[in-house]
Design brief:
about 80 residues; mainly alpha; about 35% helix
Length: about 80
């Protein structure tokens, strides 16, 4: 009866290969990329919140005309 049940064979996983070494970046290229990122960040900051407002403040704060009646309760 010892041959009826056998333990499963272990699965052998190959060792992962190390990633290739990154190529050295010259300081001039790194400085140029950092300067470009700073310029883009300044442009995004300059737009600020005003770029996200779709209507003017006057349009948002203006009261509704008297002709338009709004329902205040469900089912009215």
């Amino acid at each position: 009866m010892g041959g009826l049940f056998r333990a499963p064979r272990p699965i052998v996983v190959p060792a992962p290969t190390p990633p290739p070494a990154p190529e050295p970046v010259s300081p001039a290229i790194a400085d140029a990329a950092a300067e470009q990122a700073r310029i883009e960040a300044r442009q995004r900051a300059r737009q600020g919140l005003s770029g996200t407002i779709a209507t003017s403040a006057r349009g948002v704060l203006a009261p509704l005309p008297f002709a338009a009646t709004r329902k205040s309760l469900l089912g009215e």
